[in-house]
Amino acid sequence: MEGLIVAVIIGLVTAIFNRVKDSSSSQESRPKPKPISTGSPAQTYREEPRTKSEPVREEPVYTLQSQFEEKKKDIESKYAQMKKQENDYKEQVKMQRSKVKSIKERKDSQYSIDFGNQDDIVKGLIFSEVFGPPRAKKANHRK
To answer: Could you name the domain of life of the organism this protein comes from (predicted)?
Structure first.
């Protein structure tokens, strides 16, 4: 698989370099057309200098104060947006934590066994031996 990837990359690099060589050689081999001279002399026209200058657009001059105000507004709007997003995330975290807490409480309540004292635990072990499978079928008995 790795060899295939290397082969594809080498093929692409080779193709790119061949295209560059072809384009440079085709540019060099193109003959430049020679100017054809006609029997009559060419008339030259002198361009008259323009007396009318094109109207220059006057861009409004921004003072430092106005630029500062614009930047301040942008920053304040972004700050407000970030605060809103932060509050949304905090709400989501609270909701998720409450869900996790409720799930944990459910799990604890399902498996909670209330033993009054140690005698109940001992009785449970004895009954598990009595009601369990016979020792002959237990795997740990065989050696």
So the answer is: Bacteria
